[in-house]
Specification:
This protein is 70% helix and 0% strand. With 66 residues, the chain is an all-alpha fold.
Length: 66
């Protein structure tokens, strides 16, 4: 995948962060299309992003289970 897919994924996750269920669903989709090193980068980004949105932390289990 190109770098633009990673950036697109972050953009989508930011836009749906108002809804935990939708956020988890989009995160699951992202994991299917991103490369392993991009998933690692996404995890780091998610840890930072969810500091202000603790309700989204439950979705991080999705990545840890891959």
């Amino acid at each position: 995948m190109s770098r633009s897919m990673f950036d697109y994924t972050k953009s989508v996750l930011e836009r749906v962060s108002f809804d935990t269920k939708l956020f988890c669903k989009e995160l699951e989709k992202a994991i299917k299309v991103l490369l392993p090193y991009e998933i690692e980068e996404l995890m780091l980004w998610l840890l930072q992003f969810t500091k202000e949105k603790p309700e989204l932390r439950q979705c991080l289990i999705t990545i840890k289970n891959t």
